[in-house]
Amino acid sequence: MITRFRNLFTSAEAAAGAAVSPVRPVLTALMAGLLLLAAVWIIHPFLPPILWGATISVTLWPLVLRLQAACFGSRSAAVFFTILAAIIIFFLPAVLVIIIFARHVDAVSHFITILPSLQLPAAPAWVGRIPYVGGDIIPFWDHLRENSLPGLLRHVIPPPEKILHVLLASAGSFGSLLLEFALTLVVMVLLLSRAESIIVLLEKVSSQLGGRSGRALLKQAEITTRGVALGVTLTAILESLFGWVGLMAAGMPMGSVVAAVMFISCVLQFGGAWVLLLSTAWLYFTAPLMHAIIMLLFALVAVAGDNFLQPLIIRRYVRISVIVIMVGAFGGLATLGFAGVFIGPTLLYLTETMIRGWAGVPSEEEEGPSTGAKLSDK
């Protein structure tokens, strides 16, 4: 009898455990998710420098290993020189852009003030001789010259007092920007000093979540982050320096300001060629023809650079499409700030890779070798 009662209770406990067991993982995942959301909510004010510091740390991690080997195994020396490299590559260009705008604030304000009063010059004689369309361009040009363009600019350009207010507000936020840069460097020091333990933790978490696929996705995230960050930053630096040389050679007024605008445009994925093309048009009407020709040559090289340089750098690490880079950069900038320019494309590419893996569709990296193998077999 006692044995029967014991078996009855045992079977009841087993049935209850079987009934509860499907619920426990759900509750555990729910609690873990709530804890993660609470942690993100707590560190939300520090999220931009944390994300920015993590992005730069991932990008420069191979440099840390090389420097550590060159510094006789000293991690502190390697981190110190890596921080200097990060300041030169990522922070110094942004600070120089801000300083350039601050130094030329009066000239920029004066130019914006007189811009609505400017008129297009008379159309060159050769425009009317363009086959088929020359006769239509001249009347439209004269219409813009007399009426439409000045009126349009008066509606588009804000009043000078509003522009000065925006500039003063931007100058006031310069201190907060420097503070964010400083916090980013602190985050980099902490991450790079304990990089191995953080890497082991991330590998264990990815293995628990996705096994071999999770570890592969983590490795892909590292490579993509490095490729996008170096591609966007180095392209913006090289193109803006090249544009600055052309602006100086062509005698463009406020050439440093125009080069700073070019740098911002390259970082935001608009490219820098349009800035030089507008400068060419400006010099054509306001300076000798040779100045415009020099500027046009630099602008044509910049057009080729927009379509060649950044994809060349990024594709050394990962085959990511230009559309993903642009959409990710715009969306990341709107949601995460400046760090989102680099994080946005990485997240979109990882999402695309994960969806391809679930659907069984090979990625571009997998399609390339297989195609080459088929051709070699033939």
Automatic annotation (TrEMBL):
Q: Which Pfam families match?
A: AI-2E_transport
Localization in the cell: Cell membrane
Its predominant location is membrane
Q: Domain of life, per the record?
A: Bacteria
Transmembrane portions of the chain? 26-44, 50-67, 79-102, 163-192, 228-250, 257-276, 282-305, 317-343
Q: How does it sit in the membrane?
A: Multi-pass membrane protein
Q: Which UniProt keywords apply?
A: Cell membrane, Membrane, Transmembrane, Transmembrane helix, Transport
- Family recorded in the similarity comment: Belongs to the autoinducer-2 exporter (AI-2E) (TC 2.A.86) family.
State the name under which the record lists this protein: AI-2E family transporter
Taxonomy of the source species: Bacteria, Pseudomonadati, Pseudomonadota, Alphaproteobacteria, Acetobacterales
